[in-house]
Design goal:
Layout lengths: L7 E4 L4 E9 L3 H9 L9 E7 L3 E6 L5 E8 L5 E7 L7 H19 L15 H9 L4
Antiparallel strand pairs: 1-2, 2-6, 3-4, 4-5, 5-6
């Protein structure tokens, strides 16, 4: 099953970020525990750099790889809004890196809902064109 890409580009004067959002079916502390329990997001290459539990964490993907901020906020219905911001995205690498954020978050949601986790090949290379187009776009 292919999954639709959801990231959006947020441009700044000197760089661009990709922002992903999901609604997690748990309170923020439970969502935090699921997302940040070693390894973060279930990704062996992820390392937590800073935390302000259960509202914010900064995570690095890989050795010297991209840094992302993770924000959690409680919703009125008791669920959690999660926003993942991948910083300083190189437009030339967006087609390669963009689908990974969707994949990490969808795996987390599936794990929390006790559903089958999606496979990477459902995201890449299928989502690559979306993120390449996003990088080429002049829209905010």
């Amino acid at each position: 099953m292919k999954h639709l890409p959801t990231g959006r580009m947020r441009r700044h004067e000197d760089h661009a970020d990709i922002v992903y959002t999901r609604i997690l079916p748990a309170a923020p502390t439970d969502a935090w525990d699921q997302a940040m329990s070693p390894p973060p997001f279930g990704d062996e290459e992820a390392t937590v750099l800073t935390t302000d539990r259960p509202e914010h964490a900064t995570v690095r993907i890989g050795d010297g790889g991209p840094v992302m901020d993770v924000y959690l906020r409680e919703r009125d219905d008791g669920a959690t809004d999660m926003q993942l911001v991948l910083h300083d995205v190189d437009a030339a690498m967006l087609g390669e890196r963009g689908p990974r954020g969707d994949y990490l978050l969808d795996r987390l949601v599936a794990r929390m809902a006790d559903e089958v986790e999606p496979a990477w090949d459902s995201y890449y290379p299928a989502g690559r064109a979306y993120y390449e187009t996003l990088a080429a776009s002049d829209e905010e």
